[in-house]
Amino acid sequence: MDSPSPGPSPALQAQNPAHRPPPPQGSGHPLLPHSALPYPHSDWPPGQYPPTGPPAQIQAGSSWAQVARAQFASQTSSVQAPSSQTSARRASSRLAMPLTPLKLPIASLREGFIKERYTLIKEIEKSIQFLWPGFRIRGEDLATCLLLPRHDLEGDGELSHETCIPPELKERLADISPFCKHYMLHLDPGNIISDPKNPKYKRWSHAIPTQPEKQDRLHPDMSQSRWRSQCGTVRVSKLETLSAFLMTSRDGNKCVVTGRPNPRVFWFIPRGWNDTADHNDATGNLEIGCYYLTKIDLLETISVSGELGNTHKPWNMICIDPVLYDFLVQGYCAFSYVITRDLVGSSILNLKFFWMPKLIPRFHQVMDLSKIDTFESTPSADGSTSFNIGDNDFGKELSVDLDYFRRLNCPPALECQEIMSEITDFSGHDIWINMTAPEASLFESVAKIHWTCIVFAALCGGAG
Q1: Which residues pair with 336 in a beta bridge?
Q2: Residue 294 domain-assigned?
Q3: Please, are residues 310 and 323 in contact by the beta-carbon 8 Å criterion?
Q4: What distance in Å separates the CA atoms of residue 404 and residue 389, rounded to the nearest whole number?
Q5: CA pair distance 58, 310, nearest whole angstrom
Q6: Where is this region: Disordered (predicted)?
């Protein structure tokens, strides 16, 4: 869990389109809000905070003009980075940097001591090689080991070479990637539309689960079961419509990030996970990967086995601007769960919005775990490590790339920046959503699954 947020800081308030001052005349920067857009300079928009208001300790802070001037004045320092490949992104990210450094909530960055973590990963590889000499840690395996808390990689952890025998280690690593790919497959409904002209289907058809062969037709005396299945399908459709209506009312029919009206409905657990019996079975077959990666028992808490549409509820949905929706379903950005606070008769949940790194594809690529030792590094007092990289170093090692992205304060991918002239939101933006206590517990679980799967895909080079 990320560190609890006492409420939006003045810097992040300044990043909220509902509060941002107009950009300096003549700036023309694509990440700054367009002067013609009707951003209201008023209190937080409906859906951004519950009707009862934010927690009492949240203060208004400095005026937005003061914050903006301070933000532009603070951008005199720069981060040493590869100029030949990322000059455009570097220039953009400097303007996008918040006043306080961001902490990207990924275990390998949050916990620090990256060299010690790589030592544990090498031990995992060595343990599996005892029975499979040709085994190598690949891109998906390294992404998994960077996402997991360090205690999962040592002691009695789920992927510890000390307590897990080689077949267990190999099988558990292999279970995680299919689960995350299953999430990304269904996150964008267009991925599974079979059409020769659909490029999304071409890219994702390999991830569509193959179901067992169909059995003989049901006997007449089994018609009652067949009738119950059909009834369930109708119920799911009606439930989905009702849930979307309730969620839209909760969020004030405005995007929870930008405050703009006429949003789309974003599902944290994709609609296609349990809308049909086949989809529900496919999700159940892969759920063990969810447990190893997030420690969430998917079938016990969220997607109940044997029930269709169990996640077609308001606690699995939020209102999102159409532009951000397209970015979300393509894995360009994600929401990180921070904390839940109990209010009188309800709960308020804090999420943070982050852009994902656009990295080179590493799916199924063999990882050289000693490569990280070739980069000059600077350790910090908190255990974190910064790498000093040159013009041609970006793309050569995953953790080095991730550190570079973090030091740039997690900017959007280049292909997103032109579109972002319409909607401007930066990594670290706080979002607050109000719901009942039982809903809040479920929302926390689906938000964690969403974050982990999208970050996993991004680390493997799958953002976008």
Answers
A1: 352
A2: yes
A3: no
A4: 8
A5: 35
A6: 1-63
| 227 within a domain of the structure (yes/no) | no
Give the Å distances, CA to CA, from 235 to 66, 232, 305, 428. Answer: 53, 5, 17, 38
Tokens representing residue 158 in the block = 């789920």
Phi–psi pair at 354, nearest 5 degrees: -135, 140
| Separation CA 454–CA 186 (nearest Å) | 12
- Tally Cβ neighbours within 10 Å of residue 374: 11
The single-letter DSSP state of residue 255 is: -
Total domains in the fold of the chain: 1
In this prediction the pTM is 0.75
Secondary structure class of 340 (helix, strand, coil): strand
Largest CA distance in the chain: 77
Show the beta-strand stretches assigned E in 321-390: 333-343, 346-355, 376-379, 385-388
Distance CA 106, CA 402 (A): 10
User: How far is it, in rounded angstroms, from Cα 354 to Cα 293?
Assistant: 20
**Residue 233 falls within a domain, yes or no?**
no
- Examine residue 167 and state whether it is found in any structural domain, yes or no: yes
* 89 and 337 Cβ atoms separated by less than 8 Å: no
Please count the other Cβ atoms lying within 10 Å of the Cβ belonging to residue 92.
19
Note whether 336 and 443 are within 8 A (CB).
Answer: no
* 363 SS3 class: coil
Range(s) of the domain holding residue 264: 10-20+39-52+76-209+244-459
Determine which helix (DSSP H) or strand (DSSP E) holds 71, and give its type and residue range: helix 64-73
Q: How many helices (H) and strands (E) does the chain have?
A: 15, 7
Give the closest residue to 333 by CA, choosing from 257, 270, 273, 265.
Answer: 257
Cα separation, 350 vs 333, in Å, equals 17
Cα–Cα dist 258/320, whole Å: 8
